[in-house]
Each structure stands twice: as C-alpha cells, then as structure tokens.
Specification:
heterodimer; A: 382 residues; alpha+beta; Dna Ligase, domain 1; D-amino Acid Aminotransferase, Chain A, domain 1; Rossmann fold; 6-stranded antiparallel sheet; 13 helices; 18 strands; 37% helix; B: 297 residues; alpha/beta; 2 domains; 7-stranded mixed sheet; 9 helices; 14 strands
C-alpha cells in the first residue's frame, strides 16, 4: 500500500521528522483558503501515490492565494500515470539551499534492508544513480545487528554530506529506519530532504509504501489511507479477493495462479496479441469467484476477446465451468469467450461448458487457446 | 534417491486440524507420504485422517521422530510455527502459508541462516515439493507428475503443473519438483537448489521456472555458468509485465530497472541455458535436448 505525500508526511511527523506546514484540499476554492492560511506563497502538489509528479506537471508554484486557486483547478482532475488527481496538497513555500536523497528499502538478494543516501537529491536522483553511481551511497542493515549512528555517519561522509549537516542526517536516518521497521514498510524515502538557508533539514517529500501482508498489524495506517485507491477496477477486484492489474491490450485474461496468468500474457504476446489485464482467481477458486472475475474482466474497455486459462491443480475445472456459465448467462457479453480447461476434473468442466448452450470456444491446450484468442481479437465483428 | 525427502521421510503437519491442513494431509497420505503426526495447540490427543495430533512440535518430534514439517498455519501465526519447528530440530521445513509480513519473514530467514545453518526452509507462499512416485510434501496435485529424471525448480504453483503436464505429455518425467515460493524473501533460493540438483545422480536435466522480480534467476544463472554441465531449460513468466505493478505474487514486481524478465533471460542465455518464450515451449526444448543426446530419459 502506497501513501500519497501528505499522508506519508503525517506518519513521518509522528516520529518527529520536520515537515513544512500544509493543508490537503479537494477543490480550487479550498486551495485558495488554504494558501491564505499558509501565508500566500505556496506549492500546489498533486496527491497521487506514484513518483514523477513534478515532471508530469503535478507540482506548481503559486505566488498568492488567487494563483493557488488557479493552479489547483489545473491540477485537480489531471491524470498522472493512470492516477486521477482527487486531492492537492497546499504547502508553504520553503527556501531551498540544497537537496539530499535519503531512502530505506529492501534488498532481496542480500536478504536485508538497505539505506541509500546521496548529496545530490531531488527529481533527478535516478539520473544521478545512472550517470554518477558513486554519488549514491548504499549500506546494508543486518536485522540481527541493528542500525547504528556510526553506519549512517560512514554513509554520510562517503556521500559527501557537508560536515555541519552530518549530525542531522544521522538523526533523520535513524528515525526513518524506526518508521520503516515499526510500520512494516517496504520503502520509506525522503526526496528531497531539503537543506534550508538556515541549514536545517526538512522533508520536502515523502514516499512510504507498506507491505500489504502486514496491514492487519496496522489498522491505523489502513484507515489513514482510505479512499486513495488507485485504479477503481483494481480496487473492486481487491475487495473481492482477486488479484488484478489493468494493462493496455485487447484480450481480457483470467487464470488461476500468478505464474500461469503471467505465462498466459506472455503466450498471447508471443502469438501476436496483447492482454488487457492480469487477473488471478487464486487457488481452489469457487464458481462465485470465477463469476466475479468475469464481471470485472468484462468491464475493461476495448476488450475484443476473453481468454480463460485454468489449470486445475487444487482448483476443480467443473467448479470453474459452473462459474463461467453463470456469469455468461447473467452478463451476456458480446465478445467471444475462449476457455481452456486442463487438469482436475477437466472433462466434466468441458461437458458443462458444451451443454450450457452458450457460445464458448473450448480448447484443450494452452497454445491453441492463445492462438485462437489472438485470432478472435483481430476479427472485425458486425 | 531423490533430493530433500523420500518415501521414508517422517513428516509432521503444523496446522493439521485446519481446513487446508486436514484436506492436504489426506491427499498427501493417499500419495504415500509418511505423515507421522500433526500439531494444533489445544487439540492434542485428537486424530486427523488417522494421524495423531500434538499440542507442541517438541512433543510431536519426541513421540514420532519427525524430521520434516509442513506449515499450513494462517499468516498471523505462521512465524511462530516456523520458529517452533526450527528450534525443535526439524531439518526440512516447508511453509505453504501465503501472506506472512515480509519484514518479519526477512528477519526469520536471517536468524535461521545464522543460528540454524543446517535447517532447510522452503517457502513461504510455496506449493512445497514432490518426488513423483515417492512422496508429496505440500499441495501440488500428485497426478500431474510422473517419475523421471528432470528436476524442476519454480517460483510458481499452477505454472509448474502446466509445464510438468506438458512434459508428461511428451513422455518426460521428474526427479524432484520444488516450488520455492512467490514471496520476496524465501528460505531456499534457486541457486541453493541448483547446487543440490547438480549433485543428485538421478537428475539428468533441470527446468527452472522463474518470474519477474528480484535477482534469484541471475544468481542461479551465474552458478550454472560456472558449475553445471547438466542441460538446463528456463522459462521466465512476466515477460510482458509493466514495471511497478505487483503481478499476483508479492515478489513478482519490477522495481525500477531491477527484476526485469529481459535481464534474467540474458543471464540464462549467457550461462548456456535454453530459454522458452512461452510455458509450453519448455517441454519442446527438453524433447529437443533428448533428440540431440544432451541427456536421455
């Protein structure tokens, strides 16, 4: 679960990190009032849980409340990488003397967290990492050893942080690690940590992503983030216990098991087509779940065919077939439905589909199913 | 002899009285797995499909001599079950549970590695392992597999069944099949299993089923390049997945430029591994390897 900037900052502030004053609003009118309260000169920042907002035009300066209102009306409703801007954060303007990058994330191959620091923070950090990798310093944090000041000092000296800021960077880093561990984060990042002309460190931005598996331990965080669901279809799927990602092709895909679904997307691409989504009904899916899955898949725009690829291991093909039949009878889709059932109870499953009287294209092998789904997706129908 | 477990391995089921635990105990028993006991706190003395239930792992090990354990405990309690199994001295622990908090699992794996270096943990969020014709430790559908000499290592469940099914159709059986799990932090990684399979005389060829996210495939490829002469085929799921989106598995995500299918495919090709473009190509490639006498079945 990813937080938008101001909610991440709320969490950061609880741990004593310095954040600028700001107010989140959802209308231009409120933006004007907020700017007034904050002294006039502000930044208007789109609140979407994804990086690259600045470059997408989602962060703008406003010299006075009237301009803040205008900027807010431009930014609200914008689409930033698939996220519609529903809220803007009106934040007091702070003067910037320097920008530092400080982040903690998980290094899977090392099996431990890693702290990352650069004296050249800001929106071009990825560019810095690519062109001047020596300017981005990393240090692993062994969970058995803990995270200590000396490690941060070491990293700070290596990154070329100026002497007068090292004490504050150490404090900020230790707090960020506390936030990371306490909240079961997979990413906690301050970019930029702004150095003010008074040589103080302030969080210019926040990125906080919490492990979905750990949300049950943090009901407060889940509540804090309510209503920031990204893509609505993805949210709808999640509520039904279905793993779903929207893609940009025209063949809707339903399958069981993440690997098999990814394999289905790859197969479609290999055969010359492209998938409209990733959808995994999970192991041992019941008919009702398959029905939900079809309902979601059919809501996708521009779908020319639906491919259902099931390998029955724990899942029973007859159960899946019942779900398909029920969904098709209710939803009456106009696009061709291609079904491939194999494994556990496959014959019974295929019989149910054949005897339903519905127009379902049934295949036994994954490859022929993929080839036919691609063929159907290309046919112009009247 | 198969790797990690055989028909004589004494197995314990943690969470045996739960719906999943009990259902799969029945299936594993039918397959011939030597399940000697189960645990479920507060339910000691009961029996599940004829298997005695104990309150603690320690007691179960004492009474039955169990050497391996399979964890079917819900995510909230799975780590406790894992720590209990490790301390009780089980040498092989398979954690089926999906949804365990990532940071806690990372801690647990690190501790086990340092304090109990001989314990083998497979998973979490994995389908377990099967030695066709010998024993089934987990939730893989036994009927899909057939005894043979190709070892399979996979991060996925159903995709493994699909590929094994294609292999069996082509007349190719398996020595041992291990699902390592779909989480970002897992106890046994591809490279660990490549080492074990490489030394297993029964395994003549390897099939690696990877997916986007992390660098385990690259790590395994490097090892294969330097140490493995057995023929290897690989398939990487998620070649068309967009960056930043979690594709079902917690671990299947491209973060920035790391974890892409392209990087994994490149590493495998450089190691002399043949890479399938779609799941169903893996069995064709193995068949081709047999025709070219790279190995025989």
């Amino acid at each position: 679960m990813r937080f938008v900037e101001y909610k991440g900052k709320k969490v950061f502030a609880r741990y004593g990190l310095e954040i600028p004053r700001g107010i989140a609003v959802s209308t231009p009118e409120e933006a004007r009032k907020a700017a007034q309260k904050l002294g006039g000169e502000v930044f208007v920042k789109a609140q979407v849980p994804i990086g690259g907002r600045g470059k997408a035009g989602g962060i703008k300066y406003a010299a006075d409340p009237a301009e803040a209102e205008k900027r807010a009306s431009e930014i609200l409703g914008m689409d930033i990488k698939g996220y519609k801007v529903k809220e803007v954060y009106i934040e007091e303007k702070i003067d910037i003397a320097g920008e530092i990058y400080l982040g903690i994330t998980l290094d899977r191959s090392a099996g431990m967290p890693v702290v990352i620091l650069s004296a050249e923070g800001g929106i071009d950090i990825e560019e810095v990492a690519r062109t001047k990798p020596e300017k981005v310093v990393r240090n692993h944090i062994d969970p058995l050893w803990g995270f200590h000041s000396y490690q941060l000092r070491q990293v700070a000296y290596k990154a070329g942080i100026s002497e007068d800021l090292i004490g504050d960077i150490v404090k900020m880093g230790l707090k960020l690690y506390e936030i990371f561990i306490d909240n079961d984060a997979v990413l906690a990042e301050i970019n930029p940590a702004v150095v003010t002309p008074e040589r103080k460190l302030v969080c210019g931005d926040s990125k906080l992503e919490i492990d979905d598996n750990a949300l049950f331990k943090h009901p407060d965080l889940a509540a804090l983030n309510e209503g920031i669901e990204e893509n609505t279809l993805e949210a709808e799927a999640r509520a039904k216990g279905i793993s779903f990602v929207e893609l940009d092709g025209n063949i809707a895909v339903i399958g069981n098991g993440a690997g098999l679904v990814m394999g289905t997307l790859d197969s479609l691409s290999l055969e010359g087509g492209s998938a409209a989504n990733f959808l995994d009904v999970g192991g041992g899916a019941l008919a009702s779940k398959v029905e939900d899955a079809l309902e979601i898949a059919l809501k996708l725009k521009n779908v020319k065919a639906v491919l259902i690829n099931i390998f029955g291991g724990i899942t029973r093909c007859d159960e899946v077939a019942r779900g398909i039949v029920a969904a098709l009878k209710r939803l009456k889709p106009s696009v061709p439905i291609i079904v491939r059932l194999a494994g556990n109870n496959e014959e019974e499953g295929r019989r149910i589909l054949r005897e339903s009287g519905l127009n379902i294209h049934i295949f036994e092998s994954m490859r022929t199913a993929a080839i036919n789904a691609v063929r159907f997706s290309r046919e112009e129908r009247i | 002899m198969s790797i990690l477990a055989d028909r004589e391995t004494k197995v314990l089921i943690q969470g045996i009285t739960g719906r999943e635990g009990s259902h799969h105990t029945e299936l594993m028993l039918k397959y011939g797995t030597k399940i000697v006991g189960g645990t479920s706190p507060g339910k000691g003395g009961q029996k599940v499909h004829g298997v005695p239930v104990f309150n603690t792992v320690w007691e179960a090990v004492e009474e039955t001599g169990a050497e391996a354990s399979i964890i079917f405990v819900p995510p909230k309690f799975a780590l406790d079950a894992l720590y209990e199994a490790v301390e009780a001295g089980l040498r092989l622990i398979i954690c089926i549970t999906e949804g365990i908090p990532v940071l806690e699992m990372m801690h647990a794996i690190r501790k086990i590695k340092v304090l109990y270096p001989d314990t083998v943990l497979i998973g979490p969020n994995c389908p377990g392992l099967i030695n066709p014709g010998e024993c089934n430790l987990g939730i893989m559908p036994g009927s899909v597999f057939k005894p043979g000499n190709v070892g399979i290592i996979s991060r996925s469940g159903t995709l493994t069944y699909q590929i094994a099914y294609n292999m069996v159709e082509a007349g190719i059986g398996q020595s041992t099949v291990v699902g390592v799990g779909g989480d970002p932090f897992i106890g046994t990684r591809f490279v660990d299993l490549v080492k074990i399979f490489n030394e297993d005389p029964k395994t003549k060829a390897l099939c690696i089923i990877g997916e986007i996210g992390g660098t385990d495939e690259e790590e395994a490829a490097q090892y294969i390049k330097e140490n493995v002469d057995k023929p290897v085929v690989a398939y990487i799921a998620g070649q068309t997945a967009p960056p930043g989106k979690r594709m079902g598995h917690a671990g299947a995500i491209i973060s920035g430029s790391s974890g892409t299918a392209q990087s994994k495919i490149k590493a495998f090709k450089e190691a002399g591994v043949e890479v399938a473009k779609a799941p169903y190509e893996a069995a064709y490639i193995l068949k081709k390897m047999i025709r070219k006498n790279l190995f025989s079945i």
